Amino acid sequence: MSESFYDLVQLTDPHYMEDPDGRLKDVHTRSTFVQVLTAALAESPPPVAILLTGDVTQDGSRSGYEAIRNDLARTGVPVWCLPGNHDDPAVMAEIMAGDGFNYCQPRRLGPWEVLLVGTWDGDRGGGRVGEAGLETFARQLAASEAEHILVCLHHQPSPMGCRWLDGVGLDDAADFMAVVDGDERIRGLAWGHVHQALDEQRGAVQLMSTPSTCFQFMPRQDDFALDPQPPGYRPLRLHADGRIETAIRRVPVGD
Ligand SMILES: [Fe+2]
Fold first, then answer.
1. What is the pTM of this model?
2. CA of 111 to the centre of ligand 1 (A)
3. Which of 97, 173, 226, 232 would bridge 250 by S-S if both were Cys, CB 3.0 to 4.6 A apart?
4. Dist. CA 203 → ligand 1 center (Å)
C-alpha cells in the first residue's frame, strides 16, 4: 500500500561537547538539542526519520557522539546523519551507525530517495564534496530508481548573503550544482552549517537551510554576529507527487 506523503524532520548543528554538560557560547548544547528534539517528535503525525545534517559534535569526541546517540536512540526514531566540519567522520561513522542509525547511506521512502552527501574537508570551516564524493553522488543518482530525490549536506552549496559565512561554504559548489542540475528528479537541497533559516527556489529545486539546535548566526552580516532567536528545526513533508511542504519551527528553550 502506498502512502501519499512521508514526514521527516531536519535537526542540525547540535554541537555536543566532550563534556555533555559543556556550554558553547553560553548555551548548554545538549539541553537545547533535547528540547528541540522533543518538540520535533511531537509533530503530528510523528516523523518517520530524523535528518541530522552535521556538526553533531563540536570536538569530534567519542563521549559527545555517545551522548547524542543515547538521547536519539531513546526516541526509537531512525536517524540519518552526515558529518559537518566540526565532526570527526571516522569516530562519527563508528558510533552513529547501526540499530536505527544511518551514516551517509541513501534511504528510500516510497517514490522518494534521500541522499546524504559528505562535505567534510578537515576542521577548517569550509568544506568540499571532492572528486571521490562527486563520483559517489553521481553513482547514487544513477543507481536510484526513485521518482523524486532530496539531497542533504552540511555546507551551503549556494551563497547565504553573509560575507563571513560565505567564506566558509562549499568550495566546489559549482561542481556539486552541475551534478544537481543534471538530474531533474532532485526536488530539494537541505543543509546545516549556517545556523539560520533560508528558503529559496532554484528552478524546480527548493533550497533550504535550517536553524541550529543551539545558537544562531545573524543573517546577512559581513562579520560574525550571533542572533538571539531561539533554536529550531525543519519539518519536511515529502509528497508522493514530488512536492516538498516545509516550514521552520522555533522552539523557545530554557537551560
Ligand atoms: Fe555548526
1. 0.97
2. 31
3. 232
4. 28
Report pLDDT digits (tens) over 187-216: 999 999 999 999 999 999 999 999 999 999
Measured in angstroms, how far is the CA atom of residue 136 from the centroid of ligand 1?
Answer: 24
Instruction: Report how far residue 51's alpha carbon sits from residue 228's, in angstroms, rounded to the nearest whole number.
Output: 24
Could you count the other beta carbons within 10 Å of the beta carbon of residue 217? Answer: 21
Confidence of residue 3 (pLDDT cuts 50, 70, 90): low
**What would the pLDDT profile of 150-173 be if each residue is shown by its tens digit?**
999 999 999 999 999 999 999 999
Residue 33 · residue 63 · CB < 8 Å: no
For 108, counting Cβ atoms within 10 Å of its Cβ (0-12 exposed, 13-18 middle, 19+ buried), the class is exposed
